[in-house]
């Protein structure tokens, strides 16, 4: 199996869109390029993200049908700015760090018990793995697809 390099191409999207203001970037074209890159590298979008992209393309197309000067990015920019500012506000970062620390402390408290259980299982002869043959077919198919 050979890995496909993910290095940017010289004629890629970044050069085409880097110098343009967001309002001048065609939404549908950009989303189509992102989807093409994902397909090239055999990646799948989560269902919610795929639906969001579909809705963005539809809204952009409808907006351009109603007004040839419509720019979806211009409409979305204030919302995106507020979202980014809210995500990186000190209180939001502190909340996320507090949640991470709580999880880390809980893991630290639980780890010795998990290790004791694992050692006890290994001392008693290990563990058994049970496979259902009905589940192997799709798994083998997926592995073959990945290998190609």
Features:
single chain, 148 residues, mainly alpha, 6 helices, 0% strand
How much helical structure, as a percent, in the residues? over 70%
Q: Helix segment count?
A: 6
- Beta strands, count: 0
* CA(first)-CA(last) distance: 7 Å
General form: flat
Strand content: under 5%
Number of domains: 2
Could you walk me through the main structural features you see in this protein, from its secondary elements to its overall organization?
The chain is mainly α and 148 residues long. It folds into 2 domains: 7-80, no CATH class; 89-148, no CATH class. It has 6 helices and no strands. It has helices spanning 13-18, 27-40, 47-66, 72-87, 90-123, 133-147. It is flat. 2% of the residues are buried. The mean pLDDT is 85.
